[in-house]
Amino acid sequence: MTQTPSFANGARFDVCAVGNAIVDVLAPCEHAYLTEQGLVAGSMQLVDEAQSAALYETMAPGVEASGGSAGNTVAGVASYGGRAAYIGKVANDQLGGVFTHDIRAGGVHFDTPVLEGGAGTGRCLINVTDDGQRTMCTFLGAANQLTVADIDAGLIADSAIVYLEGYLFDPAPARAAFEAAAAEAHKAGRKVAITLSDSFVVHRWRAELLDFIKASADIVLANEGELAALFETEDFDAAADQLASMVDIAAVTRGEKGSVVISGTECHAVAAFPVDKVLDTTGAGDQYAAGFLLGVARGLSLEDAGKLGSLAACEVIAHWGPRPQVSLAELAKEKSLAL
Question: Which superfamily, per CATH, for 13-334?
Fold first, then answer.
């Protein structure tokens, strides 16, 4: 049985995430609406500013909340009482101010310089059907103007785990920043985690993602669909084993079936926590990553780290919005989970 690696090494931060800084706009919808708009249920697609504005006009009344996959994750880390930092690009506009306020108010260190002029702050229009499934249309805006110059080498070196958002494989400048962050992390002896983010991202960049994972990733987080897309097979066990052979730790979420965490010969099936009603799955994978990565950074067992991930995912799918609405630290205490 292998021992779970301890990654903390006296770091100032448990997790530093690099991602698309996005403000989410969430609204309920019927499946018929998705068909009318030509949207594939459960997908994420990139749109331009005009398309984003047009779709926004047709959406039902909803809520606006600071989001972005990796931003949601570090918000979850902070809710658990972890030390979290974030690197992402917003514009000097109203939504940029909203994003900055929200992430700092949540206890996350964030000081990436804002984009002056050019595109506005990114936003993701999320239509949620009554089964909790979310369909996302993302205008990246300022988010994909993140460049290598925005990667703070000192901040990266001061973080036990550097967590990279797979969506950054889409825009070329952000991908370069992504790769620079991974290089700085390994230069400092830190660990690099990556989330595959979305099966459509995997289909677009499968070869590049595999190359990056083999060369630079220590930890990979994915869901079943993303894992199947990465290895082009529906054989879950075979795909999970293949991923685990490439990295130190692989964590794969399986919805109501929980998750599977593998490191070397160590394998854990972690049950999902029950929830009365699934209202919105937006942020479920992001919050799983929050609990799991914090657990790994603090040297917990893989099983205990997985339980923290499952608990955070359970909390977020029971309400609208991609970030915790209660203290995850208090919730973990109630469930007698190690932190």
Answer: Ribokinase (3.40.1190.20)
